[in-house]
Specification:
By secondary structure, this protein is mostly beta strands. It contains one helix and nine strands; from the N terminus they run H-E-E-E-E-E-E-E-E-E. Helix content is about 5%, strand content about 60%.
Length: about 150
């Protein structure tokens, strides 16, 4: 019985190297307009809770993998926390999210890399991924080197 429980909780092993879906640079326009452009990315500022919609990426032919949204963040006076959020639309099933609560960044911090994963099982094939930045409680967040990639799983 213990082996069976362990098999349910086991993280699937990679079946190959990471594969880039899309990278984003300062020349890419975000859906929610940035407060200002930065050298390599964008700046978002708010006085309260706000979700900034950054990009929508159409997908096809991806399943049984870990989709990863990664970006570098630099924060100034973030009150509640800032994190990456990803929504995957599965045709016929709806939209499902993955939020980076576990590494929400608060206060003032220099550049660091953050990522939010989304696991897809065999047969789960999203047709659209939405990438967001969430700021809770207000503050300023700079974001750069945003990317979306996936790792096939066994």
């Amino acid at each position: 019985m213990i082996q069976w429980l362990k098999s349910l909780l086991k993280t699937p092993e990679p079946a190959g190297p990471p594969r880039t879906i899309r990278t984003f640079g300062a020349s890419d326009q975000t859906i929610s307009r940035a407060s200002s452009a930065d050298q390599d990315g964008w700046v978002f500022e708010t006085t309260g809770d706000q979700t900034f919609r950054l990009f929508e990426v159409p997908l096809s032919g991806i399943e049984q993998c870990r989709v990863i949204y990664r970006a570098k963040l630099k924060t100034e006076k973030v009150q509640g926390g800032a994190y990456l959020e990803m929504w995957c639309r599965l045709p016929g099933s709806g939209e499902f999210f993955s939020k980076g609560f576990h590494h929400a960044v608060k206060g003032t911090n220099d550049w660091a890399t953050y990522e939010t994963p989304f696991y897809l099982k065999r047969g789960q094939q999203p047709d659209l991924v939405k990438l967001n930045l969430v700021i809770e409680g207000g503050g300023k967040v700079r974001i750069k080197e945003a990317e979306l990639f996936y790792i096939p799983l066994k």
